[in-house]
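haha ok so turns out i had the wrong file open the whole time. this is the CORRECT one, sorry everyone. sequence first:
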Amino acid sequence: MRSQIFSVVLALLALSPVAVFGHQGETSFKKILPSYLAIQNALASDALAKAKTAAEELKTASSKLQGTDRDHAKELAAASSLAGEISKAAKIEDARASFKKLSDLFITDLGKNPDSGTEVVSCSMANAKWIQKKGEIRNPYYGKEMLACGERS
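then structure:
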């Protein structure tokens, strides 16, 4: 009996902390954060074509993650849909409107699991927030017109 208990304990110790204690580390939203940040940078640079390309990447990645992350499937589906809107936007204003909703999803998720290399910034003129890499403010809602407009949250 002792050897069986010992074997079970050893087997549990051999498992990763994720398997024993639940989900730790990188969330699905952290996995797709680089694509989100690429959209943010493109919109800050008034580069609609680049934003559309990054949005297509985010759409594909979030769609794939839906099947593996059942806890966030609804949010990932919403992210995929909003990324699809950005990738099909005819005007940069339309892409920015969808990005605002996408940002809300990311802020909600990453607020619980912050990434040390990013920060949340808000623009009162756009009545919107976004996530960006720490450093100079790069406003995706007004682009070059008001690039540095924003306050760190």
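The CA atoms of residues 22 and 134 lie 30 Å apart.
again sry for the mixup
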